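Posting for a labmate who doesn't have an account.
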Amino acid sequence: MAVVGPDQRFFYVNSVCPGRYHDARVLRESALWTIFEDEGWRPLPGAIIIGDSAYPCRDWMIPVFRGDVSGARQRFNDAHCKTRVVIEQSFGTLKNRYVCTYTKLRLIDPRIIKPSA
């Protein structure tokens, strides 16, 4: 789970249980939930986080409308989806910059490294 800003800067990352739990559970058990939900903290007045349909709707977390929607709800979902592209691009940038995040770590065989003088 990660939170990024419009400039693709990562503000929060939680990798405690990758793939093991539902996204909503990971959120509820995170420090992010505690600070936003329990303490009411916001980085800016009225700040919200947009999330996919796996997350609950809270006053600080706005997911898409679920199910078959039309009209204003469909337009909202379309705009929401276009905004969420930022998180996908952020992970793409991270993976391109650090290839080892999705491949094996490539190391030089220590037997062929010459000692420095």
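Reply:
Got it, the structure tokens are right above this. The chain has one domain: 2-112.
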